[in-house]
């Protein structure tokens, strides 16, 4: 028996409705399994890729922010290093600094009796070395105070320690003192 449209016309209305519903169900199932689920899987895959790329983009943006902050920190540290290099000299600059200290003493009216470099010592953290110089001068208290002020104003760090003063003589109503001290400057450790 062959299937023909005449057969469908002879069927009762409720069977025709069932055939229509069956045809619609088959078309819906075909659409769902043939097109919709494929698109859903593709959408799911694309969503995962988008999430992964969004995370990667966020990492890159964070890295960019960190890079900007890092570059700013490097610039800040370079400026600080430049300042430190002015305050704490390299070894080759030590003789010039010591010469500068003795010049400041003579300018202040002091007479140098001793200007002798002592043994260098490394700091506890070994980042810098102390360069001490034993100094013995003769002059008035005011001259020595002027000398200390001039040393304080030098760009380099120079500490004056272990100051001892003894009365030596009186000249023209000025008390002349015999002053001993240590001038200590610093250099970066080799």
Give structural notes:
The relative contact order is 0.10. A hairpin with a 5-residue loop joins strand 2 (121-122) and strand 3 (128-139). Helix content is 56%, strand content 26%. By secondary structure, it is an alpha+beta fold. It folds into two domains: 9-87; 91-188, Ribosomal protein S6/Translation elongation factor EF1B (Alpha-Beta Plaits), CATH 3.30.70.60. Strands 1, 2, 3, 4 and 5 form a five-stranded antiparallel β-sheet that branches. The longest helix is centred in the first third of the chain and has 75 residues, at 13-87. It is built from four helices and five strands, in the order H-H-H-E-E-E-H-E-E. Helix 3 packs antiparallel against helix 4 (141-152). The model has no long low-confidence stretch (mean pLDDT 84). It is rod-shaped. The chain has helices spanning 5-10, 13-87, 94-107, 141-152; strands spanning 111-117, 121-122, 128-139, 158-171, 174-188.
- Please give the oligomerization state of what you see: single chain
- From the spread of the alpha carbons, the general shape counts as rod-shaped
Please provide the count of β strands.
Answer: 5
SSE arrangement, N to C: HHHEEEHEE
Number of domains: 2
The Cα radius of gyration reads: 46 Å
> What about the largest sheet?
5 strands, antiparallel
What percent strand? 25-35%
Helical percentage: 55-70%
């Amino acid at each position: 028996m062959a299937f023909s449209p005449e057969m469908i016309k002879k069927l009762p209305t409720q069977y025709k409705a069932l055939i229509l519903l069956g045809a619609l169900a088959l078309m819906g199932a075909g659409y769902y399994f043939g097109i919709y689920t494929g698109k859903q899987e593709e959408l799911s895959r694309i969503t995962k890729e988008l999430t992964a790329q969004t995370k990667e983009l966020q990492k890159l943006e964070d890295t960019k922010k960190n890079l900007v902050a890092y570059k700013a920190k490097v610039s800040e540290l370079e400026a600080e290093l430049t300042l430190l290099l002015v305050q704490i000299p390299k070894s080759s600059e030590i003789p010039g600094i010591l010469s500068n200290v003795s010049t400041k003493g003579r300018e202040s009216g002091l007479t140098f009796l001793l200007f002798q470099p002592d043994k260098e010592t490394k700091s506890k953290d070994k980042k810098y070395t102390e360069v001490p110089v034993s100094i013995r001068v003769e002059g008035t208290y005011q001259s020595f105070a002027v000398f200390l002020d001039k040393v304080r104003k030098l760009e380099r760090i120079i500490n004056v320690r272990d100051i001892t003063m003894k009365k030596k003589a009186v000249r023209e109503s000025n008390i002349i003192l015999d002053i001993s001290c240590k001038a200590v400057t610093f250099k970066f450790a080799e």
